[in-house]
Amino acid sequence: MLVLLAALAALSIFSANADGSARSESSTRTAVDAVADTARRAKTILEVRNDAFNDAVVYVIHGGMPIRIGTAGGISTSKLTIPDHMIFGGTPLRFSLRSIGGRGRGITESIVVYRGDVVLMTIPPS
User: Fold this and answer.
1) What is the dihedral of CA 83, 35, 33, 20, to 10 degrees?
2) pTM of the model as a whole
């Protein structure tokens, strides 16, 4: 993301307005601020590929507290949004699964997640 911001700032400095006049420094800051604002609003997604037959309830564990974020249907891929209030810079999260109609449960290792990330998880067939 930082590389993108630096590249955008460099491109904006050398670009011109539609009428050919030089672009001011304030418009460069505006472009960089717009990219940064978009990054702040980006959704953080947990993409769950469930290769098992049973649906699974998915929890994100933040500070030791599990919070339900959705259900991953059996034999399908689900995209679940991780709540923004859980992400502060690089935030270590764990994920927990509970099989619906089965005995399966699972918990992941801790993974550092940034706002706007897409975290991939696969539930193997049972």
Assistant:
1) -160
2) 0.67
